[in-house]
Amino acid sequence: MALDLRRSLARQRNVVRGSDPGYGRLRQAAAGAGAMATALIPGYLYALLIGADAKVRLISMLLAAIVAMMGGMALTGSALWPKVRTAVFFPVAIGAGMTVGALLADHTDAMLAVFVLIVFLAVYIRRFGLPFFFYGFMLWIGYFFAALLHPTVGMLPELIGAAAVGAAWVLLLTATVLRTNPTRVLADVRRTFEARAVEMLWSCASLLDAETERARRRAADRIDGRHVRLQETALMIEAWSAEDSALPAGWTASGLRRRTLEWTLALDSLAGCTGTVSHGPAELTTAAASLVRALAAEDRDAVASGAAALRDAARRPDAPGSTIAPGRLRVAALGLAGAAEDLLDLVEDDGPPPADPADDEDPGAFEPAVALAMGNLPGSPSVARDVPPRVRRWNPLGRLSFTSRQAVQVAVACGLAIWIGRELDATRYYWAVIAAFIAFTGTGTRSETFIKSANRVIGTLAGLVIGIWMAHLTAGNTPLMVTVIVLSMFCGLYLVRVGYAYMIFFVTIMVSQLYGILHEFSDHLLMLRLEETIIGAACGIAVALVVAPLSTRDTVERARADLLTTLADLLDAAALAGEGNPRGTRDPAAGPEDDAPRGTPELIIELGDRLRRLQLVAKPLTRPLLWDNSPRTTRHRLTVYGAMVRTARAAVVALPRPPASGAPATPGASGAAEVYRLVAEAARVAAAHPVPLGGGHEPDGALTAAIERTDRRIESLAAQAPGDDVLRPVSLASRLTELLAATGHDGTVRHAAGQGDAAPAATAV
Q1: CA–CA gap between residue 142 and residue 606 (Å, rounded)
Q2: Nearest Cα to Cα of residue 637 among 697, 714, 703
Q3: % of the chain residues with pLDDT over 70
């Protein structure tokens, strides 16, 4: 009983850890909300010190709080001087916006026209780096404050001073109590990885326990989802490994990369073997499920006995109830037992792996395969920025960079929002401008802009109902209203990466409380905010569809081509390693050094990132939002690409290496390396021919021919039967050709003759 309780609590702890990698969302929410709440005090003290009146005192507090909140998100990392260099320009940016706004305060038409120019500049300067993303926001906010509150020129020094107080305060906080500790963050991310690995093990056990085909499909889908989350965490470990002082004592970045890859590949093997074993007889699936559950509970004795029982059951795979060829089922069962033992060894070995001559001796020489942006993995704009828009030849916007195009789109959308929003209300039009401006922040394609704008309207509508109720509940109680504002901001920042609508829901509640403090709250005012938000969202959607639209399908095709190209590079590198080059890099005598492919560890990590990017930009196609689109087909094809990545990683590990560096490869290994190169060639052919991810199409002739050449060579090698160490990589290469064929036609995975494998593409090795 006590043991079951401890296991239940441990699983709940894993769920909590797995929901927020490295507690990144929690740290971001705490930094933003904490900086905003505490900055009110120095802002108030500053206003008292300069003898400001009540109006300037309130504006000073708000400015300090806004600068601190944005600074809490901008000043990430652990190094002090980069934070100082960034924070020192916060008051400059916000002051520039306020100065221009104050000078135009008496000229309404000019102020509105310059407003459009300000939003253009706020987006355009993002091209100069991440700090300018926040400078642009602060430039826009400064002008927005001036347009809203109409400060005089004489008030500017006091207001800019309040912004400087907010910048100084958030710099102090992020350098002390809110300072990011890379060592602790990396340790938290690694614990998240382990927690998500355990959750995937429980999903594998559910697949083995499934008694119906429907339950089996649902469990397989859960495994796919766990794989995606696990890959995301592995990429975060890779990125944080490059941060100064992040690594634990005794570890190197390359060593941590190897250890993470060992975990990833072992989990790939276990999940793939699980998919095959799940179609076996009851005796085999029962033994496998017991083994996987023992592994999830980290019970060594149970794992040892479970592995022995599974190997014993594997000797009788032809029992009634099996839908898999006996030979393949036996190999999968033995592979599952071996993967379970390998994973348990990794769980119990907390120390750094043995030194490898291939590791970089200089820590500064380590280059991560993926970089972080504000502590998170890059979003869809990192993929979309290299995709050309769909415009006619005469349209000059087609020649602009991604940032410049978005600057033009934002300017046009905000201009429309001002024009239409003022028709509804001459003083509250800024809600429409905000909705139009934010629609192009963090989005890359027209579908993403549509979804974000729709989520803003939905979040505003839901928050309106609760906001009105809470505003009446807290009316007259200023401390309670301030508490609700801070908590709402915290919840909004914490959930923004889960769903944008959640953040807007809490922002709407916060706004209702803020109007209550200002004694301006009314139900009509919040309804007006909803109407203006709808106008701004509609303007953003219209501009995204008409002005230099960036197609979601084009972006997905670019991500797909990048994935297949990286897959080909990985297979080429693996073939080189199989022929005696331990790093999988080209012989310098073979050509220029710049043409040498990266080593296999780097390419395995990069391949995982390519898959993440494809899944990220293809997300809109998994919803019934677009015409001529099949969400079900899109989801299935993404599953096929995920299976392709996992199979490629298994293939790299399975290819036999020469016993010593520089030793010639055996004939069988040379043949397997040749097959890998043929599969790489087929992958490059597939990358060069666009394929609609969400709709049917005819197979490409060049891809079909490349796959047929590969199949013929695979059949020739298999007939020679050089040994199990070569049959397995050849079998995995055959599996890759199946998956490539599926991506080149209608998404259906064909099975090679004689394999008899009915396992779904999501889980079969």
Answers
A1: 40
A2: 697
A3: 84
| Residues whose CB falls within 8 Å of the CB of residue 690, separated by 6 or more in sequence, listed in order | 557, 561
Q: How far is CA 443 from CA 382, 383, 617, in A?
A: 10, 11, 10
Tokens 């008051």 sit on residue: 91
Distance CA 397, CA 408 (A): 8
Per-residue CA distances from 392 to 399, 405, 447, 573 (Å): 11, 15, 20, 41
Contact (Cβ atoms closer than 8 angstroms) between residue 425 and residue 443: no
Instruction: Give the residues across from 373 on adjacent strands.
Output: 376
Q: Which of 52-56, 401-405, 484-488 has the lowest mean pLDDT?
A: 52-56
H/E segment holding residue 74 = helix 54-74
Exposed/middle/buried for 725, CB within 10 Å: 0-12, 13-18, 19+? middle
What is the rounded CA–CA span in Å between residue 355 and residue 362? 14
Query: How many whole angstroms separate alpha carbon 66 and alpha carbon 73?
Result: 11
Please name every residue paired with 376 in a beta bridge, in sequence order, or none if there are none: 373
pLDDT at residue 108, rounded to an integer? 84
Structure tokens at 541: 């959607």
Structure tokens at 66: 């806004």
Q: Residue by residue, what is the 3-state secondary structure of 105-134?
A: CCCHHHHHHHHHHHHHHHHHHHHHCHHHHH
Higher-scoring residue by pLDDT: 616, 733: 616
What pTM value is reported for the model? 0.86
Two tokens, residue 302: 């149970």
**CA atoms of 324 and 699, how far apart (whole Å):** 28
Residue 271: is its pLDDT beyond 50?
yes
CA nearest neighbour of 572 among 666, 682, 668, 667? 682
Structure tokens at 612: 């993440």
Which among 323, 330, 212, 343 has a CA at the least distance from the CA of 271? 343
380/532: higher pLDDT: 532
- The C-alpha atoms of residue 722 and residue 87 are separated, in whole angstroms, by 65
Buried b / exposed e along 194-228 (16+ C-beta atoms within 10 A): bbbbbbbbbbbbbbbbbeeeeebeebbbbbbebbb
CB 253 within 8 A of CB 360: yes
Model pLDDT, residue 764: 34
Per-residue tokens: 663: 């030793």
What's at 215, amino acid-wise?
Answer: A
Backbone φ, ψ for residue 373 (5° rounding): -130, 110
Per cent of the chain over pLDDT 90 is 19
Which whole number is the average pLDDT over 374-380?
Answer: 82
> Is 475 within 8 Å of 517 (Cβ atoms)?
no
Q: DSSP code of 393?
A: T
- Dist CA 124 CA 186 (whole Å): 34
C-beta of residue 581 within 8 angstroms of C-beta of residue 658: no
pLDDT at 325 (0 to 100):
66
Cα–Cα distance between 211 and 595 in angstroms, integer? 52
The alpha carbon of 194 is separated from its chain's Cα centroid by a whole number of angstroms, namely: 18
